[in-house]
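Bumping with the actual sequence this time:
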Amino acid sequence: MTPEENRERVSDRDNGGSSDRTQFPVTPDRPDTPIVPRLDSVPAPVKDVTNRSPYDVPEAPQLPRVARPAKPKARGASSEPGSYRKSAIASTAVTAFVTPTIVLSLGGFWLDQRLHHSTDYLAGIGVVLGLIVGTSALLRIVAKLNE
């Protein structure tokens, strides 16, 4: 069906054969197609009763005044130079314990590969030596923290 035939069909159905206004084309009657609204069924826009122009900007709302918070006070030795010494020493504790273990175990593994050993006993010796060296380094750091 062409658009012209559809318009004629709509005008014939609505007005008994003649219509001078333009209609939306109507889809064939199928249950899955939506119904197209008519132009005269759209509600009229509501008029503004305050007589404002569309370019007037309303006043901004007033917010209550809030007092600024007080400055935080310094706590004892935290503002003095060298106050972060203990925290810096404590942050190296993990590194001082783990690094010798990893380095010595990887060194033992590398020696096992270079010397073509069938068992990796040098890597095991590296792990044990690394744990001993790491523990002694950790104990030295704890002793420094307790000073």
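The tokens above came from a reply further down the thread. Helices lie at 3-15, 85-91, 93-114, 121-145.
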